[in-house]
């Protein structure tokens, strides 16, 4: 993330906060930041910090975000937005009531290749979008001490990787009417894998796969009434898409990202703040809530009981 600030002319990183003063200071030295804080409260009180990037474990987003909104600090909140749907609803309500900018850090929506895909869809290149397929899985050795497998930290495939496939489908099809899931869990109570079928009352669908138990290509495909678009791996930060119009030769479209790819969401946040907007039109809070609802429904069906960490600011 920090390296990509070089590609955003009107923004620069200045400070870091951690619940460990030593870790914060070491991070600041490594990355050339002006100052560090051994508590989140410290950076919230810094008058020279215009916007915060919240990258704590998922279960800590809720409490820190609410405190930041109360302090009037705009936020870029790493995905998944929160650990639970009610948590997301509370953060969004607080941001809207206070008029404070908040955006989920779903970098996929800002990748140039994904922007090109959305433009093609909007122009009717493949007709009406009727179905989406996407997968994102990795092979991780089960370790109860790792945050990915810790329920109290918001671990599991859904919140870490599944958020990408769900957000991609929601971006193209809107909020689904039904969620059906099959999967498994680890002994710690987090989900190991999940296959989701999202349904819309008009017959549209999305088939999505996420896993910490086995690797997948990380590819997506968008089906329309007049063709389809392949998003080549890994679809959540792609360089290339392939347009297949009915009756025409495939068309390969390459749109590499600037830097690692985080620069585009950083530029969106910067532009929103400069123009006084409190929400992004590319990643609006309504979309974040729709995605969080799907994740919550899937977790519930798998018996995964995520919860927010109420002590994130003080522990």
From TrEMBL:
Domain GFO/IDH/MocA-like oxidoreductase: 115-229
InterPro entries: Gfo/Idh/MocA-like_OxRdtase_N, Gfo/Idh/MocA_domain, GFO_IDH_MocA-like_dom, NAD(P)-bd_dom_sf
GO MF, one example: nucleotide binding
Residues covered by the Gfo/Idh/MocA-like oxidoreductase N-terminal domain: 7-104
Keywords, alphabetical: Oxidoreductase
Entry keyword Oxidoreductase: yes
Keyword set includes Transmembrane helix: no
Family: Belongs to the Gfo/Idh/MocA family.
Protein name (Swiss-Prot/TrEMBL): Predicted dehydrogenase
Originating organism: Geodermatophilus dictyosporus
